[in-house]
C-alpha cells in the first residue's frame, strides 16, 4: 500500500482570468475592486477610440465586446512577451520581446510611432491607483526543510513537507490469517462454480445421472482440431502468473545469467535455484557464443533462386 | 542366415554404395507422395541377373537399370499371411505363416518384395562386375505405415493448419516409403531431395546443402547430403510448417517444432548441449555427424525415434519452465535419443542377433548420464526398477534371449518356442518382448562393467567409435565400411583385447542363454560357534529361470560393522557358514544375535529375484540405517508383512527424514497406509501421516489450512503430492475411509492456492483428485436399487462436487497435458464401479474420440474397456472403431488396450480380436506384432489356442 499524500496544491489558486466577470455588481473584495477599476479604464479607452473614429454613441453590448477584445489582445501581448523573454532566459521583458510579439501577432510595428503621435488622439486620465490584490498565502503545513550545506542559498526553497513526504497508511490489518484464507478460498470457489454453471447452462452438457442433468452438469467434451496446443501451452492465467513470479525473482538472477548474444533462450531461469537434478549450466554459453557472431546454420540461409532453365 | 559373422567384411549380392531419394511431390490433401530413387550397385558376383529390393505399399511405375527398361515383380507375402479359406485358424499356424512371410522378404538374407530382372543387354556388364544404376519411379497413396500424415481438419492452407508428415516405424521399416535395401547392415551414402510447399520445411538426414525455389517460386527443394555411410533403415524425414530454433550453445544443432510452440521448444531444448558434452566426454569422441536435428511432431509413433543425425520426438514432450514432473522425463528422452546417435545410428549392427550390443551400449551410457545428472540414488533406484521389470517378465512369460543363434534356419530350433512367436526377426516379435529385451541388454552391459571396470568399458566403446569413424571417411564402398557394423563376436573380442579378462562365462550365462535367477534365502545364527548359517536355495525349474553357479556377494551388517562375504554358489551346496565378528555377549540388548541385517547380492550383479527371510526388527534396522536406497526400498516392501508399532515408528522416522531419498519416503507413505489398515483396531493417535503432513505443509497458526504452494523444493513437492494419495487408502474398522481423512483432502483442495508459486500445480491437483478416488469404498446397496441422486451418499456428493468443478474448469483453463481431466475421468469410473453413480460408458466414449489429447483418450479408453468387462463382444463394433482410429496414434496405446483386455482374460474376445486382424490385414506390421503379445497374455503355458470362428 503506497498512498502518498500528494495533492492539494494541484488546485491552482484563482487564475488571472477573473476579468471576464464583467457584470458583477457586488464588488466586495479588494481583488474585485482592482479588476473592476482596470476594466473601467479599458472601457473608457474603447469609448474614446470610438469617439475618435467618429461614433457618437454605441450600444452597451458593442462597447463590452470591444472591451473584451482589447483586453484579450493586451493579455496576449503580455503572455507572449513573457514567453519570449523567458525563452532567452530573462525574467524582465525588453522592448525587443514586445516587438517580436507584435510582429508575430501580425501587427505592423512601424506604424506604431506615427499612430502614437497622431494629432486627434485623446488623453484619458490614468486609472485610479488601487492596491494590488494580495494573493492569499498558501496554507503552510509544517516547517520547510532548510537547504543542506551543499546546496547554494539562491536555489528555491524546499516545498512544503507534505508534498513529498510519504506516509504509508495501513488498513486495519485483518489479524486472522485463517479468515483471510477462508475468504479467498470460498471466493474463488464461488466464482469458479458460478462460471462453470453458467457455461454448462449456456452450452451442451453431459450428466452422470440419467434422471438429473442439473445437479452435476458437466460441460460436454468437445474434440479439438489441434488437441496438443491447449494441452501443452500454458493458459493465459499461468502465463500471467509466470510473468509475475519471474519479475520478482529476476533481480537475483541477472548477475549470474549469461545473456546470449544472438538469441534469448534463457527462459530456463526458474529452475536455477532448484535441486541439482534440473540444474542449468550456462557457463558455456559465453565462450561458445563469443567466438562467432554470425550463426552459420543451413536452415537460416536464404532460399536460392532457381537456375535459369536450360534449353530443351 | 548363413552369413559369416565376424570382423571380416561380408558379402551381399547387391551392395549399394550410393542412393538418391527424390520426393518431388507431397500432397497433404490426398496424403500421397510421388518420387523416384536411384541406387548405385556394385555387383559382387557374376551372373547377378535379379536384384531384390525391399518395398512395401509403394506403387512402382517404372524401373530402369542403366537407362534400360527393366521388368520387375512385386510381391509382398505379409499382405495375406493366411488365406481366408485356410482351415487352420489358430495362432500357431498364423505365427508360423507370418514368420515364413517375413523371412521371404528379409533383406539380411538377400530377399525383398521387389524383384528386378537385369536386362539381358547388361549381363555382360554385370559379369565384369561393373556398376549398375537402378532407377525406380514410385508413388505412395494413403500410406498405412512408414509415413504418417497429420492433417488437422480446419480452414486454411496446409501450412496454416499445421499439417505435417513424418517417417516412423518399428525397426527397419523404411521400405514403407521408398524402395531400398531395408537392412541395418547395408550401408551407403545418400543424397536426399524433397520438394515441398514454400511455407514448409523438410528435415532429413545429413547436411542441408541448399534450398532452391522451383521455377514458379511456390515450392522449394531441400537438398541433403549424407556422406557418412548409413543404413536405409536409419533414413528419416519430417515435413511441416516447422518453427526453427538454432541451438544457442551449438549452432550445428537445429530444433524444429510445430507452430506456436517455439517458447516451449526453447525451454525444452535448452538443456541438450549438456547431454552432448557428457557423451562426448565419456566416450572421448566427438559427435559423429556434422549436424544434429530434433523434430517434435504430433501423433508420434513412439516418444523417441533416433535416425542418422536426427531424432523425431513426440510434441507432447515439450513443456514450459513451470512444469516440474515432465522435465526429467523429457530430458531422459533427449538423452536416450542422443545415446542412440552414437550406437544405433552411426554404428549399426551386423545382424539382428547383434541388436543386443547396440541397445545394451546405448542403454548403458544413458544410464551413466542418469547417474551423473540425477545422482547415484536415482540411478540405483532405476537399475532396481529395470531389474524387477525384466525378472517379472521372464518369470511370467519365459526367458528373453539376447543373442539367439539360429542353426540351419529350421523352425523347430526356435529357441523361444515358449513364446508363441519367432524371435528370428524383429518383425515377428511382440512389442513387450522387445521392450524387455532392451532392458535386459543394458543390464547385462552393466554386469560386464562390474566385471571389467568402467574404464575398460569406455575404452571399448571408444575403440568401436574410432574404428567406425575411420571407416566412415573412406570414399567408396569398401570392406572398411563393415567396421561401422557391430557384431557380438567383434564386441567380445574388443573387450578381451582391452581388458585382458575372460568374460565368456558371463556372456554364456546372460547373453547366450535366457532366464533369470530366483534365490530363496534364510538363515540361522549359531550362538555357540558364533556363526551365521545361511541357506540359499534356487528355483531353476520354473519357466524363465536358470541355474546360477558362481560367486555371490552377501553383506552382513553386524553390531561391529558391515562385512562383505563372497560365497561360491555351487551345484549342491545350499548352506554357507559365515563367521561373525561381533561377540554377542558384549551387548545384552541384542541377546539373540549380533546381526542387524543381511543382504544378498547388494550390488545387483546377478539378474535375479531374491526372497529373503529375516525378522521384522532386522528389516527395521535395514530401513533406518542402511544407506543404499535399494536396501531401504526392499525393507519397506518387507515391512508390509509386519504391522507393528515398531514398523510404524521406523516408517514415520524415514518419512520425516529430509536427507532420505524422496522416492523412499514416497514408498514409505504407501507402506504406512497398509500397516495402519492392518493395525486399525489398535491404532492410536490421528490417522497416519496426518500430523506429519500438517507439520510439513500446513500453516503454523491454523493447522487445517495448507500453506500457499511453493514447489521450489522438489523433494517436498513430491512428498506433498503423494501423502494425500496414500492417506486416502486408510480405512477404519468399518472398512470405510475415515471421515477425518476425506475432510482433510477436501480442505487441501479448497485451500489450494497457487498464485505465488512459480510452478504449475496441475500434477498436484490431479493427485488430489486421485486421492479422492482412493477414498471411495463400495456403496452399500439395498436390493440392487437403481443409483439416483436422491440416495447418493453425502460423502460421495462432496467428491462429485469437486470432480464436476475440476472437470468443468478444465474446459475454461486447461491444465498441462490435461492431467486433471485424466484424473477426473479415472475418479468417475471408480465411482461407477463402486456403485455410487450409474455405470455408463457414454461419457468416456466421448472423451475417447479423436481430437482429444492423447492422455485423455487413453484414460477414457481404459474406462471403456473396464466397463465392457464380460459383455465385451456386445460392444465390439464401437470398440474396434475406437481402436482403429487409435492405431495411428500410438502403438503403445493400442497395446495397452490389448493388455487391459487380456489381463482380465476373455478368451472369446481374443478370438474376436484375432478375427479382426485376419480380416483387416492392413500392411502395417505393427498390427501383426501385437498378435503374439495377445498370446503371451492369455495362452502362455500350454500353448493351446481355441479355434477361432467357432
From TrEMBL, chain A:
Cellular component annotations (GO), alphabetically ordered: cytoplasm; transcription factor TFIID complex
**Basic residues bias: where?**
302-312
Positions with biased composition (Acidic residues): 241-255
The organism named in the record is Accipiter nisus
What lineage does UniProt assign to this protein's organism? Eukaryota, Metazoa, Chordata, Craniata, Vertebrata
**UniProt xrefs under Gene3D superfamilies:** Histone, subunit A
User: What are the entry keywords?
Assistant: Cytoplasm, Developmental protein, Differentiation, Nucleus, Transcription, Transcription regulation
GO BP terms, alphabetized = cell differentiation; transcription initiation at RNA polymerase II promoter
In the record, the note on similarity to other proteins reads: Belongs to the TAF8 family.
Annotated PANTHER family: TRANSCRIPTION INITIATION FACTOR TFIID SUBUNIT 8 (PTHR46469:SF1)
Residues covered by region (Disordered):
1-29, 240-312
| Predominant cellular place of this UniProt entry's protein | cytoplasm
Residue ranges occupied by any Bromodomain associated domain in the UniProt entry: 34-111
- CDD domains according to UniProt: HFD_TAF8, TAF8
Q: Does the keyword Cytoplasm apply?
A: yes
Composition-biased stretches, type Polar residues, lie in: 276-288
Localization recorded for this chain is: Cytoplasm; Nucleus
Can you name this protein?
Answer: Transcription initiation factor TFIID subunit 8
Give the GO molecular function terms.
protein heterodimerization activity
UniProtKB/TrEMBL annotation, chain B:
Instruction: Enumerate the SUPFAM superfamilies for this protein.
Output: Leukotriene A4 hydrolase N-terminal domain (SSF63737), Metalloproteases ('zincins'), catalytic domain (SSF55486)
What are the Transcription initiation factor TFIID subunit 2 TPR repeats domain coordinates in residue numbering? 616-870
Which GO cellular component terms are attached? transcription factor TFIID complex
Cited CDD domains? M1_like_TAF2
Domain Transcription initiation factor TFIID subunit 2 Ig-like intervals: 514-586
Superkingdom, according to UniProt?
Answer: Eukaryota
* One GO BP annotation of this record: RNA polymerase II preinitiation complex assembly
Gene Ontology MF terms: chromatin binding; RNA polymerase II general transcription initiation factor activity; transcription cis-regulatory region binding
Which family does the similarity line name? Belongs to the TAF2 family.
Question: What name does the UniProt record give this protein?
Answer: Transcription initiation factor TFIID subunit 2
Amino acid at each position: 500500500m503506497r498512498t502518498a499524500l500528494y495533492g492539494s496544491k494541484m488546485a491552482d489558486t484563482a487564475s488571472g482570468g477573473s476579468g471576464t466577470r464583467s457584470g458583477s455588481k457586488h464588488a466586495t473584495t479588494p481583488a474585485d475592486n482592482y479588476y473592476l477599476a482596470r476594466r473601467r479604464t479599458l472601457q473608457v479607452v474603447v469609448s474614446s477610440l470610438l469617439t475618435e473614429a467618429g461614433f457618437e454613441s454605441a450600444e452597451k453590448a458593442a462597447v463590452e465586446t470591444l472591451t473584451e477584445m482589447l483586453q484579450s489582445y493586451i493579455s496576449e501581448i503580455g503572455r507572449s512577451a513573457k514567453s519570449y523573454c523567458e525563452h532567452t532566459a530573462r525574467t524582465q521583458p525588453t522592448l525587443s520581446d514586445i516587438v517580436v510579439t507584435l510582429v508575430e501577432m501580425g501587427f505592423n510595428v512601424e506604424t506604431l510611432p506615427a499612430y502614437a503621435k497622431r494629432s486627434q488622439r485623446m488623453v484619458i486620465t490614468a486609472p485610479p491607483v488601487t492596491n494590488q490584490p494580495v494573493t492569499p498565502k498558501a496554507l503552510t503545513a509544517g516547517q520547510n526543510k532548510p537547504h543542506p550545506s551543499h546546496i547554494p542559498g539562491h536555489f528555491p526553497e524546499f516545498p512544503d513537507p507534505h508534498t513529498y513526504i510519504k506516509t504509508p497508511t495501513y488498513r486495519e490489518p485483518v489479524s486472522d490469517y485463517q479468515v483471510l484464507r477462508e475468504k479467498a478460498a470460498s471466493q474463488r470457489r464461488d466464482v469458479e462454480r458460478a462460471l462453470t454453471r453458467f457455461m454448462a447452462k449456456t452450452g451442451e452438457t453431459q450428466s452422470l445421472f440419467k434422471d438429473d442433468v442439473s445437479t452435476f452438469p458437466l460441460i460436454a467434451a468437445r474434440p479439438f482440431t489441434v488437441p496438443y496446443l491447449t494441452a501443452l501451452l500454458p493458459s493465459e492465467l499461468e502465463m500471467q502468473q509466470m510473468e509475475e513470479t519471474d519479475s520478482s525473482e529476476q533481480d537475483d538472477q541477472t548477475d549470474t545469467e549469461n545473456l546470449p548474444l544472438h538469441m534469448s533462450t534463457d527462459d530456463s531461469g526458474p529452475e536455477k535455484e532448484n535441486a541439482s537434478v534440473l540444474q542449468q549450466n550456462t557457463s558455456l554459453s559465453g565462450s561458445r557464443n563469443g567466438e562467432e557472431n554470425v550463426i552459420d546454420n543451413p536452415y537460416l540461409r536464404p532460399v536460392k533462386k532457381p537456375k535459369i532453365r536450360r534449353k530443351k | 542366415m548363413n552369413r559369416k559373422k565376424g570382423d571380416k567384411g561380408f558379402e551381399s549380392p547387391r551392395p549399394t554404395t550410393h542412393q538418391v531419394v527424390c520426393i518431388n511431390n507431397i500432397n497433404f490433401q490426398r496424403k500421397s507422395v510421388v518420387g523416384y530413387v536411384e541406387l548405385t550397385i556394385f555387383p559382387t558376383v557374376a551372373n547377378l541377373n535379379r536384384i531384390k529390393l525391399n518395398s512395401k505399399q509403394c506403387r512402382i511405375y517404372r524401373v530402369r537399370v542403366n537407362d534400360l527398361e527393366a521388368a520387375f515383380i512385386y510381391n509382398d507375402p505379409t499382405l495375406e499371411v493366411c488365406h481366408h479359406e485356410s482351415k487352420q485358424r489358430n495362432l500357431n499356424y498364423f505365427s508360423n505363416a507370418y514368420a515364413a512371410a517375413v523371412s521371404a522378404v528379409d533383406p539380411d538374407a538377400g530377399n525383398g518384395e521387389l524383384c528386378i530382372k537385369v536386362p539381358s543387354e547388361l549381363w555382360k556388364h554385370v559379369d565384369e562386375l561393373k556398376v549398375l544404376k537402378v532407377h525406380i519411379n514410385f508413388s505412395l497413396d494413403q500410406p498405412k505405415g512408414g509415413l504418417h500424415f497429420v492433417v488437422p481438419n480446419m480452414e486454411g492452407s496446409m501450412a496454416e493448419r499445421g499439417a505435417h508428415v513424418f517417417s516412423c516405424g518399428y525397426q527397419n521399416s523404411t521400405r514403407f516409403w521408398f524402395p531400398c535395401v531395408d537392412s541395418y547392415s547395408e550401408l551407403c551414402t545418400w543424397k536426399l531431395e524433397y520438394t515441398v510447399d514454400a511455407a514448409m520445411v523438410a528435415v532429413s538426414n545429413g547436411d542441408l546443402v541448399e534450398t532452391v525455389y522451383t521455377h514458379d517460386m511456390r515450392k522449394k527443394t531441400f537438398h541433403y547430403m549424407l556422406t557418412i555411410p548409413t543404413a536405409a533403415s536409419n533414413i528419416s524425414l519430417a515435413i511441416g510448417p516447422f518453427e526453427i530454433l538454432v541451438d544457442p550453445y551449438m549452432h550445428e544443432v537445429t530444433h524444429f517444432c510445430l507452430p506456436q510452440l517455439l517458447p516451449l521448444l526453447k525451454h525444452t531444448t535448452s538443456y541438450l548441449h549438456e547431454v552432448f558434452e557428457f557423451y562426448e566426454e565419456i566416450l572421448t569422441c566427438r559427435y559423429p555427424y556434422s549436424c544434429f536435428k530434433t523434430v517434435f511432431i504430433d501423433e508420434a509413433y513412439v516418444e523417441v525415434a533416433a535416425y542418422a543425425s536426427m531424432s523425431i520426438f513426440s510434441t507432447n514432450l515439450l513443456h514450459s519452465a513451470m512444469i516440474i514432473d515432465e522435465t526429467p522425463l523429457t530430458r531422459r528422452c533427449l538423452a536416450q535419443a542422443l545415446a542412440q546417435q552414437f550406437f544405433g545410428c552411426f554404428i549399426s549392427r551386423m545382424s539382428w542377433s547383434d541388436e543386443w550390443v547396440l541397445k545394451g551400449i546405448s542403454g548403458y551410457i544413458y544410464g551413466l548420464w542418469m547417474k551423473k545428472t540425477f545422482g547415484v540414488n536415482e540411478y540405483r533406484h532405476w537399475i532396481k526398477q529395470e531389474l524387477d521389470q525384466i525378472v517379472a517378465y521372464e518369470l511370467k512369460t519365459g526367458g528373453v534371449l539376447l543373442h539367439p543363434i539360429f542353426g540351419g534356419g529350421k523352425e523347430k530350433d526356435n529357441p523361444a518356442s515358449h513364446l508363441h512367436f519367432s524371435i528370428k526377426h524383429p518383425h515377428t516379435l511382440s512389442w513387450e518382448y522387445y521392450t524387455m529385451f532392451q532392458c535386459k541388454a543394458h543390464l547385462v552391459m552393466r554386469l560386464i562393467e562390474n566385471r571389467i571396470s568402467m574404464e575398460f568399458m569406455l575404452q571399448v566403446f571408444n575403440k568401436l567409435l574410432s574404428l567406425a569413424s575411420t571407416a566412415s571417411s573412406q570414399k567408396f564402398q569398401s570392406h572398411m565400411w563393415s567396421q561401422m557394423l557391430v557384431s557380438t563376436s567383434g564386441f567380445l573380442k574388443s573387450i578381451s583385447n582391452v581388458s585382458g579378462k575372460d568374460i565368456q562365462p558371463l556372456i554364456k550365462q546372460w547373453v547366450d542363454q535366457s532366464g533369470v535367477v530366483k534365490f530363496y534365502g534364510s538363515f540361522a545364527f549359531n550362538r555357540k560357534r558364533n556363526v551365521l548359517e545361511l541357506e540359499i536355495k534356487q528355483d531353476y525349474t520354473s519357466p524363465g529361470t536358470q541355474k546360477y553357479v558362481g560367486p555371490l556377494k552377501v553383506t552382513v551388517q553386524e553390531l561391529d560393522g558391515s562385512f562383505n562375504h563372497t560365497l561360491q554358489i555351487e551345484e549342491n551346496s545350499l548352506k554357507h557358514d559365515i563367521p561373525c565378528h561381533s561377540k554377542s555377549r558384549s551387548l545384552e540388548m541384542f541377546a539373540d544375535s549380533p546381526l542387524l541385517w543381511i543382504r544378498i547380492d547388494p550390488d545387483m550383479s546377478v539378474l535375479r529375484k531374491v526372497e529373503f527371510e529375516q525378522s521384522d526388527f532386522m528389516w527395521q534396522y535395514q530401513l533406518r540405517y542402511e544407506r543404499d536406497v535399494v536396501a531401504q526400498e526392499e525393507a519397506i516392501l518387507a515391512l508390509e508383512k509386519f504391522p507393528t508399532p515398531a514398523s510404524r515408528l521406523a516408517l514415520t522416522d524415514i518419512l520425516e527424514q529430509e536427507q532420505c531419498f524422496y522416492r523412499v519416503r514416497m514408498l514409505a507413505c504407501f507402506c504406512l497406509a497398509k500397516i495402519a489398515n492392518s493395525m486399525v483396531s489398535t491404532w492410536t493417535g490421528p490417522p497416519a501421516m496426518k500430523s506429519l503432513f500438517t507439520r510439513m505443509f500446513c500453516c503454523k497458526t491454523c493447522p487445517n489450512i495448507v500453506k500457499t504452494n511453493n514447489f521450489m523444493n522438489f523433494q517436498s513437492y513430491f512428498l506433498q503430492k503423494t501423502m494425500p494419495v496414500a492417506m486416502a487408502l486408510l480405512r477404519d474398522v468399518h472398512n470405510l475411509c475415515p471421515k477425518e481423512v476425506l475432510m482433510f483432502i477436501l480442505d487441501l483442495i479448497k485451500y489450494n492456492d497457487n498464485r505465488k508459486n512459480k510452478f504449475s500445480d496441475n500434477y498436484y491437483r490431479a493427485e488430489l483428485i486421485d486421492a479422492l478416488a482412493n477414498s471411495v469404498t463400495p456403496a452399500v446397496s439395498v436390493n440392487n436399487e437403481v443409483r439416483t441422486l436422491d440416495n447418493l451418499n453425502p460423502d460421495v456428493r462432496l467428491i462429485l462436487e469437486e470432480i464436476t468443478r475440476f472437470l468443468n474448469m478444465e474446459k475454461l483453463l486447461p491444465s498441462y497435458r490435461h492431467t486433471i481431466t485424466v484424473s477426473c475421468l479415472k475418479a468417475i469410473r471408480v465411482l461407477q464401479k463402486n456403485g455410487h453413480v450409474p455405470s455408463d460408458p457414454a461419457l468416456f466414449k466421448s472423451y475417447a474420440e479423436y481430437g482429444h489429447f492423447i492422455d485423455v483418450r487413453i484414460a477414457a479408453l481404459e474406462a471403456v474397456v473396464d466397463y465392457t468387462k464380460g459383455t465385451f463382444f456386445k460392444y465390439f463394433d464401437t470398440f474396434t472403431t475406437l481402436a482403429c482410429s487409435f492405431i495411428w496414434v500410438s502403438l503403445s496405446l493400442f497395446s495397452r488396450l490389448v493388455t487391459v483386455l487380456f489381463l482380465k482374460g476373455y478368451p472369446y474376445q481374443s478370438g474376436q480380436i484375432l478375427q479382426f486382424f485376419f480380416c483387416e490385414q492392413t500392411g502395417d506390421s505393427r498390427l501383426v506384432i501385437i498378435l503374439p503379445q495377445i498370446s503371451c497374455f492369455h495362452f502362455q503355458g500350454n500353448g493351446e489356442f481355441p479355434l477361432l470362428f467357432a
